[in-house]
């Protein structure tokens, strides 16, 4: 009996060793990275557009830098969302203010792994503006309409709208041309494009150059609210540096509160920033019109994203509808809001990962 007990004990020891080896051999990324405290550096993306006014104000007023403390802030500007997505997925960017459609595309391309939506920034501020003699969808046939970049938020909105109105794209219908926003303005003035589905201030700039509004995108959404600009972050960065993400959100909150409480100064700060970045300022009338089209807020309007995901398929930006389970993480945002006595925001069930 004693000999049998010794043999049994030896077998149990071997099994325990094998189990430990099996655990040690598992990939390190099978579990979420542990928090490592504040990051040494935060690489933040943004666009030199009025729809990114909270980002521009946060940079100009030093709100981000102050909240980040010893974390170095490195910024990079982009013309449109797909460029920022490539930087995020390539690991050269940690967080970015970005359009809603590219945010979905980043999540889809990484199979739900690489990015998380952590806050809103801007709602509204996108329109289809065209030559004044165009009064309806059918008159767009044979015309060229511009968007900032293939797959960006306005590009998806235009292509979905064309499909809903049974307008084919291409030589037999409407040519959609992806152009940098300043180029669109130049080509509209010279008559080479008939208009564009554009973010502010570019839709207002075309209106100032003689265009008329054919579609205000706000009219296509319940309550007139849709996310034009949101804030996303690399998932790994969020997991490793939640305190740094919270600092970024505090800076964003201060920028939005400044824009709401001081609209005149917010316009000046935003316009001055755009001039520094693009060497072109916005005319006062254009600036006033553009700001009147926008609403700033931290709520990402998460409930709109399932529809936005469907729109990306309709527009041909993504082949299939994206499973958005786990896409939204407003944990740090709600902590920031609660800390200021503000109501929390909803993830609309999109924080529940099924992976």
Automatic annotation (TrEMBL):
Pfam families attached to this UniProt entry: NMT1_2
Alphabetical list of NCBIfam families matching this protein: SsuA_fam
Source organism per UniProt: Pseudonocardia eucalypti
InterPro entries tied to this protein: ABC_SsuA_sub-bd, NrtA/CpmA_ABC-bd_dom
Keywords associated with the record: Cell inner membrane, Cell membrane, Membrane, Signal, Transport
Family annotation (Gene3D superfamilies): Periplasmic binding protein-like II
Signal peptide, first to last residue: 1-19
Protein's name according to its UniProt entry: ABC transporter substrate-binding protein
Matching PROSITE patterns: PROKAR_LIPOPROTEIN
Cell location: Cell inner membrane; Periplasm
Keyword Cell membrane: yes
Family membership: Belongs to the bacterial solute-binding protein SsuA/TauA family.
Record keyword Aminoacyl-tRNA synthetase present: no
Taxon lineage: Bacteria, Bacillati, Actinomycetota, Actinomycetes, Pseudonocardiales
CDD domains per the UniProt record, alphabetical: PBP2_NrtA_CpmA_like (cd13553)
């Amino acid at each position: 009996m004693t000999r049998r007990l010794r043999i049994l004990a030896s077998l149990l020891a071997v099994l325990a060793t094998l189990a430990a080896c099996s655990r040690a051999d598992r990939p390190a990324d099978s579990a979420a990275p542990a928090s490592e405290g504040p990051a040494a550096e935060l690489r933040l993306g943004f666009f030199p557009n009025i729809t990114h006014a909270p980002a521009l104000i946060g940079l100009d007023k030093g709100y981000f830098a102050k909240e980040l403390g010893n974390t170095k802030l490195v910024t990079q500007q982009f013309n449109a969302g797909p460029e920022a997505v490539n930087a995020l997925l390539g690991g050269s960017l940690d967080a970015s203010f970005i359009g809603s459609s590219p945010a979905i595309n980043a999540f889809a391309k990484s199979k739900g792994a690489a990015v998380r939506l952590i806050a809103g920034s801007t709602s509204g501020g996108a329109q289809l503006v065209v030559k004044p003699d165009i009064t309806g969808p059918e008159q767009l046939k044979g015309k060229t309409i511009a968007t900032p970049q293939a797959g960006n938020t306005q590009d998806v909105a235009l292509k979905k709208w064309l499909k809903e109105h049974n307008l084919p794209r291409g030589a037999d219908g409407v040519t959609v041309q992806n152009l940098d926003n300043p180029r669109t303005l130049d080509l509209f003035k010279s008559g080479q494009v008939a208009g564009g589905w554009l973010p502010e201030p570019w839709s207002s700039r075309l209106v100032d150059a003689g265009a008329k509004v054919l579609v205000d995108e706000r009219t296509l959404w319940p309550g007139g609210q849709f996310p034009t600009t949101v804030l996303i972050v690399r998932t790994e960065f969020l997991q490793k540096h939640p305190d740094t993400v919270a600092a970024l959100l505090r800076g964003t909150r201060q920028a939005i509160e400044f824009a709401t409480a001081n609209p005149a100064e917010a316009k000046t700060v935003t316009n001055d920033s755009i001039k520094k970045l693009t060497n072109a300022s916005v005319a006062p009338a254009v600036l006033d019109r553009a700001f009147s089209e926008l609403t700033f807020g931290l709520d990402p309007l998460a409930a709109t994203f399932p529809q936005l995901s469907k729109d990306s398929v309709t527009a041909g930006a993504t082949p299939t509808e994206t499973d958005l389970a786990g896409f939204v993480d407003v944990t740090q945002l709600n902590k920031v809001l609660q800390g200021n006595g503000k109501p929390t925001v909803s993830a609309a069930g999109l924080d529940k990962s099924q992976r």
